[in-house]
Specification:
single chain, alpha/beta, Rossmann fold, four-stranded parallel β-sheet, 4 strands, 53% helix
Length: 196
């Protein structure tokens, strides 16, 4: 537990934070983008699942730290309640009204949320990290190597795959450049956040 708090403390000294869903995301994106993240002075952090973004956004906002989210497709969804929009609303972010998004499809939701710092590398509401082509190419070998399935060994499999092929996939680089562009655009506005 103490390590989690120590990680939060480090966020206070960065120029921005990109929240990602889980440890496997931190490992994959962090490995692929290591030098870029240092150049950008941006930290990756996980709230340990797509249900914890709101609390972490609230924390970052309270310290005027620019933030962005890169989530899987399911956090955005393609029908009904938009979980990430609900979390942003609870965190006081002037994001789209979750009810206004409920009848929109995945692409429309993705585009609307990008204006508020929520990005995804997913092509559909069902896409997750393991749906990247890079992961698909090496998944069977990785599962044999670690002796278990993706669901049981996400972190170990992510390590194996990024070590097997450490070059950054184009879609990852492009998605993170979008998120970092959002952070830079919003650096100056974090000083004057409304109370809430």
């Amino acid at each position: 537990m103490f390590q989690r708090f120590a990680g939060l403390r480090e966020l206070l000294f960065s120029r921005g934070v990109i929240l990602v869903e889980g440890e496997a995301d931190v490992i994959a994106y962090g490995s692929w983008l290591d030098s870029k993240l240092r150049d950008w002075d941006v930290q990756l952090y996980t709230p340990q699942g797509d249900k914890g973004f709101g609390n972490h956004v609230l924390f970052l906002r309270s310290f005027a730290i620019p933030w962005a989210v890169i989530c899987d497709g399911k956090a955005i969804g393609d029908r009904g309640a938009c979980r990430i929009a609900l979390q942003l609303k609870r965190a006081g972010v002037p994001a789209p009204d979750p009810m206004a998004l409920k009848d929109l499809g995945f692409g429309e939701r993705r585009d609307a949320l990008a204006q508020y710092g929520v990005f995804t590398l997913a092509k559909s509401a069902a896409d997750e990290l393991e749906d990247f082509e890079r992961f698909k190419e090496h998944m069977a070998e990785a599962e044999r190597h670690v002796g278990g399935t993706w669901r049981e060994n996400k972190v170990r499999i992510a390590h194996f795959i990024v070590n097997r092929d450490p070059s950054c996939p184009t879609e990852v680089r492009d998605g993170f450049q979008q998120a970092v562009g959002f952070l830079r655009l919003n650096e100056s506005t974090t000083d004057s956040l409304p109370d809430g």
